[in-house]
Amino acid sequence: MKSLKLFGLSAIAAITVLTGCKPKGTENAVSGDAAEKVYVAPGKYDEFYNFVSGGFNGQVNVYGLPSGRLLKVLPVFAQNPENGYGYSEETKPMLQTSHGFIPWDDQHHLSLSQTNGEVDGRWLFANANNTPRVARLDLKTFKTVEILELPNSAGNHSSPFLTENTEYVVAGTRFAVPTDDKNGDVPINTMKENFKGVLSFIGINKDSGDMDLSFQIEAPGINFDLSHAGKGKSTDWFFFSCYNSEKANTLLEVNASQNDKDFIMAVNWKKAAELVKAGKGRKVQTEYAHNKFDEKTHTATSTMKKEVTVLSVEDMKEAMYLIPCPKSPHGCDVDPTGEYIIGSGKLAALIPVFSFDKIQKAIADKAFSGDYDGVTVIKYEAALHGEVQKPGLGPLHTEFDGKGNAYTSMFVSSEVVKWNIKDLKVLDRQPTFYSVGHLMIPGGDSKKPFGKYLVAYNKITKDRYLPTGPELAQSAQLYDISGDKMKLLLDFPTFGEPHYAQACPGDLISKNQVKFFKIAENQHPYATKGEAESKVVREGNKVHVYMTSIRSHFAPDNIEGIRVGDEVYFHVTNLEQDWDVPHGFAIKGAQNAELLIMPGETCTLLWKPLKAGMYPMYCTDFCSALHQEMQGYVRVSPAGRSTPLIYSLNNKKDNAQGPVKQGETK
Ligand code: K7E
Ligand code: CUA
Q1: Does residue 557's CB lie within 6 angstroms of at least one atom of ligand 2?
Q2: Pairing of strands 613-618, 583-587
């Protein structure tokens, strides 16, 4: 229980300890040539893209490495007023779920797509922790193009981790819950009978990247924390860390820490897929949203799915095993060779390293110690390669450099520990400032790590940056790992709370960038492909404005005849056909956000004026020297007034560039 207390108060304890015997002056930890190593000269690109989870900011943030410069915040699970994501009519469906429209989530883990176990730079997958979902971002456009909700789950933490050819993205439920087809309205203390821990396997189309919930596995009601797929020889397997094998439903900090060991669950996903193909599994009726963004119509659609195939423990008899793992394992990481599986017991004073070969042998030899809710438990010693002794306190996550070394984050003792995977000897340790969560080495969870750098994502930054009120900056720290000893190079603040991250060389992604959308290929139903086509159409109290934007005006830019009670849809098409020329659109009194329309794209803002009056609209993005002139007026009359609907550009009649047009009658 003592170690538990320490962990419970770990954040404070760690700081207290560190301020007590703080490494002498943090500046001592940085060597003289550090600045040179992170300096990226003006006009030069960074070497790596670094995608960092947004945590409670719900988005994904893109940094350059080694500079730590913030390049972009990519909207994924939270509405983003900066560009209208989740506010525009086109993107609202992206945030639909079986619980209705969800404007926020908690984003923890990222996975870059892989081919043959190597990062391929095509897609980025992201999890939503709170309302279980997985998103796919297309790295040609850096847009979120798909979000799939996960039924039978709660707290989608063990997600999204992928197989080495991106066949499947996996998502394990953090909370054990009753499955959707069972009555969930049961006493909480019936957890042991009624709650299950469901693992979702999302099939990925290898050409389009489209996601499909292929099947789920209904495992015992434990909490799944993290996961990684096997590689090479272990490629058919997934490994999940599990905690709360006690199945406590209250005061988990005490009650879920009773057992000396929890588990790593090994699942043969190839066999599971074959079982489903052979007709095994029950069909569970449920509801989950599948949201897709179409690049041709520039519009998302949301479809409610109704059924999923679920394999039982019985079905998985020969394809699912538990391996005891000391004290509430958190991270579950597989080395580049696929032979070693590292479990990080948060409360353990050692790091257990399991051997894939030994696990296979244990299964063949039936070296079992019993079962847990029908799942066979392999003997700890039979699966164990060895233990890293005295690595530090509170091991969480491990990454690899591809040279036979592992790097583990130590939350409680605030350090990164480098150790040799084979002989399990600790080689180096460097302090982090402070309380490190995840670590990331570019490609560090793939078959071929790019190495060179390691980034620590820290929970606490007291005394590292200028203070900013009660909440201080979140932080990342960059280390050079090219030598024997790690060298701290740089601190840089991050958004939200950073958890996991991914990185890859810049040119893997930069060479495929979409620079603009071709206007001729725009299939948006309200697209306006030239100013001559711009118009305003009334349908009852709905008014559709077919508007264009080009440097430096809107067409039309004068509109009259809107009435209080109208729902006005501004469908703005950006006619530019050039890289990096978005136009914005905002109108006074808009209750949602602005639009930021990419070249060739059409976006729609719904506006409901509540009062009669004169309403200016303008472009929000400084697009040209005459950007400030990119503005116009909308006149709103009281409800029932018969102001004629007229619209124009430059007051001109019979001008193809901007005729006065009559919509409804006067
Ligand atoms: Cu360790 Cu949510 Cu991956 Cu954060 S989790 S640290
Ligand atoms: Cu368009 Cu400013």
Answers
A1: no
A2: antiparallel
